[in-house]
Design brief:
Blueprint: H1 2-8, E1 13-16, E2 19-21, H2 26-39, E3 46-52, E4 58-64
Antiparallel strand pairs: 1-2, 3-4
Helix pairs in contact: 1-2
Length: 74
C-alpha cells in the first residue's frame, strides 16, 4: 500500500486514508496507471479511478480485481 500511495501522491493530493484527488492530464493519468501497474498485484489489489470530465459526465475504472458494490457513489 505504501508504494501505491507514494506513487499516487506524485500526481494527486492525499485526502484521507486511501483517497486521493486532483486534476491530472491524460498523459499524467497514463503515466500514473503505468507506474501503479508495476507495483500492484492485479490478482489481489484494487484501485478505482473516478474520472469527472464535466459535472454531468463521470466514469469509473478499476485496475486489478473488482471489490464491493459498484452501483452507489456518494
Amino acid at each position: 500500500m505504501y508504494k501505491v500511495l507514494k506513487i499516487a501522491r506524485k500526481y494527486l493530493n492525499w485526502v484521507q486514508n486511501s483517497v486521493l484527488e486532483g486534476e491530472i492530464s491524460d498523459a499524467g493519468l497514463a503515466k500514473l496507471r503505468q507506474e501503479l501497474k508495476e507495483v500492484i498485484n492485479q490478482d489481489e489489489d484494487s484501485i478505482m479511478f473516478y474520472l469527472m470530465r464535466t459535472m454531468r459526465y463521470t466514469s469509473r475504472e478499476v485496475m486489478g480485481i473488482q471489490k464491493g458494490r459498484r452501483d452507489i457513489i456518494i
